[in-house]
Design a protein that fits this description.
Elements lengths: L3 H9 L22 H11 L11 H10 L6 H9 L8 H5 L3
Helix pairs in contact: 3-4
Organism: Liquidambar formosana
GO biological process, one term: DNA synthesis involved in DNA repair
Protein name: DNA polymerase delta subunit 4
């Protein structure tokens, strides 16, 4: 066990820190993310239409519609167009836990 003098010295010691990693330019976090995906992610995050885990976005929209929760019509149009991802944005986050 370290004495209190050693611990105090440990925390006040000058330790050389490595230089921070410097990135030149800006990261592009919008790969595969457009205004349609933004609308769908807003739908995913809105719990007024029920949970989105364990079902596709279209199934969730249909369930919300059948329950009279008035989900956005533009979301239905996007989902039925076949040009967007049908999986809820939260599905990827669950795999990280």
């Amino acid at each position: 066990m370290a004495s209190s003098g050693n611990v105090k010295g440990f925390f006040s010691a000058d330790v050389a820190q490595p230089a921070a990693l410097i990135s030149h330019g800006s990261p592009d976090f919008k790969d595969g993310y457009d205004e349609h995906e933004d609308v769908l992610r807003q739908f995913d995050m809105n719990m007024a239409y029920g949970p989105c885990v364990g079902m596709s976005r279209l199934v969730r929209w249909e369930c919300a519609h059948s329950l009279g929760l008035d989900p956005p019509k533009d979301v239905e149009g996007l989902l039925r167009s076949g040009k967007v991802h049908l999986d809820c944005a939260l599905v990827g986050w669950l795999h990280l836990a």
